[in-house]
Amino acid sequence: MKPWPNCGNAVITTCCRERAAGQRPLPLVGQLTLLDPTPLHRRSVPAQSCLVQQADGITTGETAVQFLGPRLVGRDAETAMLTTLALRAARGSGQAAFIAGEAGAGKTALLRRAAADAEGAGLQALWGSARELEAHRPFAVVSACLGIDEGPEGPMDPLRARAAEVLLGQARYGLPGTPGGADFPTVEAMCVLVEEICAQGPVALFLDDLQWADRASALVLQRLVQSVAQLPLLIIGALRPVPRVVEVDVLAHGLRGGNRTVLQLGPLASSAVPLLVADTIGHEPGPRLLRLCEGAAGNPLYLEELIAALQREEAITLHGAVAEVTADCPVPAIDTLITHRLAYLRDEVLQVLRAASVLGAGCTLHDLGAVLEVPAHVLLASIADAQAAGILTPDGPLVVFRHDLVRQALHDAVPSSVRSLLHIRAAQALTRAGAAPERVAGHLLEAAPPDGEFLVPWITGSAAQLTARAPGLALRLLGTALEIADPADPRYEQLRLHHVVAQLSSGLLTEAEESARIAMARPTDSGLADLFRWIIVQAAFARGRPDIALAETRLTCGTAGPPTLDAVRLRAFASVCLFALGRLPEAGAAAASARRAAAELGDATALAHALQVLAAKHFLEAPGLEALELARQASRLTPETIHPAQWLGLQLALANCYMELDLTPDAERTLASVRPSAEHLGGVFLPWYHLSCALLAFHAGRWEDAIAEVDAGLDPGVHFAMSRALRALAGAIAVHQGRRDDAETHMSQAEAAQDSGTVSWFYEYVLLCTQALLDEAQGHPERAFRRLAHSFDAGIGHLPGQLILSFLTPDLVRLALDQGDSPAARRYAQAARSRAGHSSAPYHLGDACRCEGLIAQDPELLLEAARHYSEATRPLNQAHALTDAAELHAIRGRPSDGRAHLERALAIYAGLGAVWDAARATARLRAVSVSRGNRGPRNTARLGWEALTSTERIIAGHVAAGHSNPETAARMCISRRTVSTHVSNILRKLGLTSRVELATEVIRRNSPPEHQ
User: Above 50 in pLDDT, residue 351?
Assistant: First the structure.
């Protein structure tokens, strides 16, 4: 075998006692003399001592490989349970199970047995194993399992290609991230892929060594496990108790119940040990052999290594049908036994294995050959020897160790300097092969000390791609490169820029600002100062400090000379900062100036910022067609001319404008058109999209749809500072529905959230409204009035209250009159009239009429308000106005009219499920001697088919038609997670456990009576 270059003639230290020339390994048992081991180590060794091998097939991504489908000894109960789960999943009732146990307990063997049974039950089996070297690589395990990693050759199918494109993350490069936050677009893409594969037939995911799983993969698995009951999906994972990763620990131990099972794989029962030994050696064990084997504490791997060592030393003799050890001896430690097995290998085989152990479980034969600088075919003989000796297990093109303890023993014996060299060579080989930068980065992180001659040029050229896919990895390597690079190196400033962008993408916004300032303070002619300044502006704005962002923009805008492109863009963004700070006159002037400059330069980015501010300012001050036209002009700018994130923000702002002006179809179309982009970009845009959908559904009276959108938006909302409004909206619905305890829980969570993002400021009103609503539900209307009145006058944060809270004027008038404050009531009514005069939107006209009707005690004005609310499709507001009118009719001596309007209001409340509002309306009318008339049948069911909303019935029809959640989402123009939430609600209401049962029920209901 060719010696390793640059290693001199040194032989890498082996994990076993090296044999001197002509010397055999030392005996392990008593004073037994070792005989020729060749016949023994050439025999076929099973993957576990308790296995009887059966060749079978499994799929890793798209590649079919051979695996051992064993008959296990002593694991009958566990095998039966996993087989049962596979059969249930095949029938459409998804299941999840996690096998936990110490190293060598037989988890992998049980997992492979389950895979064989799953395939026998008709499931498509997909396999993935976590690797220690890839624990920091996002989505490493799940992407390998689903076949969107680099392993499979040839073109991917369209489903996997879409997920792979999202995994690249190119559209998200440079956008502010969140510390430790997951890449939600890729999480969603993985879940969509699994559901689409499930739509083609039952699927089983088998994931081994999850103790090494990366956190992003663990989050994907959490999502899949949470919705597993909806799919023909089986998820089985295996993990050791250590090392503990919080996300994996929650996955394995925190998701019990229902369709989720945790198997603790302990030692084999004492009765199973003789059976295992007998299966391994073909004879019943004698007393001494059995006592020796019992010292392995029921660990199958330990038993296998012990028996193999005894056989290699010919320390087992046969006495008839009984096998007995020739002498009593203490049981060696398992690492000693593994060392003993390795001692029988040729030196060249050991060298190959040591290199493979450093490269990590699952390196390819090509990778290994490139690192050793040996053609791959030359290694085949060594690989065959290692497989025959039970060190490696066949797995297609991969070099896979039979057990990680074997790999670890080899790895630990390699000197750290040699390990570092091997990792550097692996990185170089992968780079030459065009591998993904994350794979290269994994090896470079292990190389200590780093090789600056390779690291600096490689990371300079790969930083953008690596940051888009794995910003955490990029940040670590860029930090190392900056430490070892020469500041005089022309690439040094590029490294600093990449480092700052990686900080921004990792959500380290304050750090990104500071690093950018330090870089700008360093004298240089690199021409990167403008880019560093933009990063400061973006980071400050994203973390809720538009004042800092504004100050930074003015440093450039104040310079003399003709305006440059960057200067115009910064001036336009300055208007955005001024608007966020509530300085509307200055914001308008700055935006108008930037609009003219942008038009002269033909720059769409600056023009978009300027139009956005002008539209928002007009909309607050005078909502109407002029403001709407400005918003539409901004939205007409395409993603090809501005950044996709900027385009998406403009579209979401436009959708909210449509909502406010009661242009519901336009709002729905706009939200439907931006959904794919929001799911692709993620960041703050995903929870913003879901919040917009939730508000639209809430105002239209589709409260269960609103809750589904809230649920879909909460995960990304927590990470991207948009959770307060989402939780508050859920709290408001809970108050209206009479679930005060739930409302108080939602509000405590909302108040505890630290939403610092600038976008979230514009939705703080939702929290205020719910707090006031809860005050009233708790019997404190005076507190509700003080809270709302203070915010109306003082504003919410930087935003002017009289403009942003004008929709609250009817409640303010009602509460002010109850408190005897007529002047305040008239002031609030004037604000409502002013807004309605600008917009003429039905909702605004309804507010103005209701305010006037309450002050004038005029039921006709209140009924007119109800008509406007009906036109605007705002049923809750309509019911409130009808209740007000009913009360005034009763006071004026027209109880029959009052009762009629009350009945209309109560019918609306019943349709909404607004139990608290209905009770309050009934009490108000009872106080003026108006009671309800004869009650007709009302649908108040919470369970059964009658409890399903119209949206849920539509989705149930899609399920019956065989449409997957992603397909249903595309057809209905809503998100997959929203559909998933609806399906869970449908199953709960109908008492069903799977989509198959739901489809059966829908078909039964739609069949003619004679066929039901």
Answer: yes
